[in-house]
Amino acid sequence: MLFETFRVGPFQCNCMILGCEETKTAVVIDPGADAARIVESLSRQQLKATYLLHTHAHLDHIGATDLVRKKTGATASLHEDDMPLCQNLQMQADLFGLPSPPIPPIDRFLKQGETLSFGKLKLEVLHTPGHTPGSVSFYISDLGLITGDTLFFGSIGRTDLWGGSYSTIIHSIHKQLLSFPDETAVYPGHGPRTSIGQERASNPFLG
To answer: 185: which strand partners?
Structure first.
């Protein structure tokens, strides 16, 4: 499996590209900004993006989706519960004094428990609401968990923004994420990687 992660935009969102070495098909997770860099990375690795996957619809995770979708023809995918956020990118941008990107068309809705294939690889969708109503995480057996803004190194996602709920995010983490073995790697939407075991043992929000 090919795996690349790099930080994009003023909020330093972790954009991730996962590719199948055999078929050269790939997914892009959270194309939040810097569309040209994302497209260049795909081209450099000779990858064809089939899906643009979003852990949620905050501006810093979805801002480059329209441009990347136009360049790649990939299927833009989001959980349906986050469509109000997606459709209000202008409001989100205004809160931070940033220019608003185009609202991307969403081609398909992600659903709890579904499996998406790209080449010889698969990932599972886990609905992990709390940071936003439609927040999801992804599990790839050869890699680990991609948790967006649900679970971070030593922290959890904010719940004071629209649609956030502290009790819901804690439930999501315990039910969906802490069910994985301690050795499972965790790749958050911001900051460094961690593991389920490390967060189970030391995350102050999960005691």
So the answer is: 195
